[in-house]
Structures are given as structure tokens and as C-alpha cells.
Amino acid sequence: LKHLLQLALAGLLCACCLHAQTAPIIVPLDYSGRHLYVTITDDHLGPLTLMLDTGFQRTTLAARAASNGQVHTHFWQRSLAYNGFGDGAAKRRYQTAGVSLRSGQALLFTGSALVADVGDFSERLGHPIDGFLGWDFFRQWCATVEYTPARLTLRDPAHCAAPTGPYAVLHADWTPQGLL
Description:
By secondary structure, the chain is of the alpha+beta class. It has helices spanning 2-22, 63-66, 121-125, 135-138; strands at 25-28, 30-32, 35-42, 46-52, 60-62, 71-73, 95-103, 106-116, 131-133, 142-147, 150-155, 174-175, 178-179. The strands form three sheets. It has a six-stranded mixed β-barrel with strand order 3-4-9-5-8-7. Strands 1-11-10 form a three-stranded antiparallel β-sheet, with no helix packed on it. The chain has a two-stranded antiparallel ribbon with strand order 12-13. A hairpin with a 3-residue loop joins strand 3 and strand 4.
């Protein structure tokens, strides 16, 4: 009877764990100036305000935000330059920072983020920004953006179906030409 009770308890715990893994994760959105932002937390850097941008191939942190942690310079990688922001001439280097991004207790993304000088981008947008959630983030989720209420719903792609109603569904892959 004792072993039967232990098996039943273990089964119940496993069922709870599986439900927790397949439950959608709701992240509040800030819609400002035609841009979408989320505030999430990195295990080492603390709270970060990131713009949703599937046009960025990689999740990217502002150098200012990444400098609170450990930034790695990769001399053997090709250098990167971004157009549209940054102060002065492009800095020709390839830098990354390890991230573990969370919303509450839910782990959203873990891996390497690019580090870039975004200069006065926050001032020009009129909104604080610590970086961008790129395609490497979105490709691992089935993501639904809702404007009212403003939220980003993330689901495991194995448990995802297109929403009913007048919604746009994006099925895309990152290619050398960009998001297609």
C-alpha cells in the first residue's frame, strides 16, 4: 500500500509538471509609438525592457545594459555593424552576452545575445529600451500578440493552433535574405 501511494503521488506530481510546461505564458506588453515592448528579467542583469523585433535575427542587448554582466568579445568572428542607431562610426567587433530571460518564474529564452551600441535610440523612440527580442527568441515559441489587453502569449509550438477570428498568422523562417 505504501508503494502504491508513492506511485500515485509521483504520478500526480508528473501530471502537474507536464501541465505547467504546456500552459501558456502571458507576458504584459507595452505598446508605445507603434512599437511593442516587454519587460522581462535576466538572471544576472535584472529587469530589461526589450522591443519585439522579428527583423533582428538574434536577440540583442544594448551595450549599456549588457555591461552590467559579462560581455565576451569574439575576435575570430566577423564584425557587425548596425544601421539606424549608434553613436559615430560603427564599432567593428563581435560581442555577446549570455542571457537567461524570464517572465516571473517561466524561463523564456536562454543562450547568447548579441551586444550592440544603440546610442540614443531610447531617446529617439521616447521609450526606454535595453535591446531587442529577435527571431531566435520567436522561432522557439508559438506567439500571439494581443493589443487589448496588451499581452504576448507564448505557447509550446507542439500545443499551438491558429487562433479563431480575424487574426494574422505568420509562418516564417529566417533566411540569408531576412525573415521570409
